[in-house]
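It is worth pausing here to work through a concrete case rather than discussing structure prediction in the abstract. The textbook approach is simple: state the sequence, then state the predicted structure, then interpret. We follow exactly that order.
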Amino acid sequence: MIQAADLPDTLAIFPLPGALLLPRARLPLHIFEPRYLQMLDDALKTSERLIGMVQPCPHRGDSETLHTIGCAGRVTQFSETEDGRYMITLSGVSRFRIEAEVSGFTPYRRCRVTWGDFHQDLGRCAPDERFDRPRFLDLLERFLNFRNLSADWDALKDADEELLVNSLSMMLDFDLEDKQALLEAPCLATRRETLTTLIEFALLGGSHEETLQ
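Step two, the predicted structure:
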């Protein structure tokens, strides 16, 4: 487990729209662009093997603008294809706040970051005392039926509450600002409430096109 003292001041940034990573969750990624292949090679040379996932802000008129809060993941699995691409898994470590972008000679972006606002990410998740699993799963079932989607209900019924909420937050195809709201939720209970609101909005005819990836 990575300790607070091991977290770097500068982090390689992967601004991938719609790809949400949360602490203690896992995100599979397909890496093929040359600049991100270089980013991965450089990350694997470090002891922490960290990459920062951040949502861009294209609605602000500048495709290069980033949200200030992202989540760092440790490369825990990777395999290389015959044509030089990588299939990797990032395991979420901690959220961070971007202080400034760092100029340099790398083809990928790097930022100076701070971690102090998210010290709780490195410990155990606080339980969601008000989590009503039957009610939540009933809402989820109505949503999936509405979207003509299927799910492994045995796995959902038995899943740890953090795994359940975080996995759905990552897999459901909400828009970028909704993904960012789920990322920035201060605790599991708030993330579950945000996720519930987004699902209810979709069932009421909201504009989102939620699908399971």
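Step three, interpretation. Residues 4-122 form a domain with the Archaeosine Trna-guanine Transglycosylase; Chain: A, domain 4 fold (CATH 2.30.130.40). The chain is about 30% helix and 25% strand.
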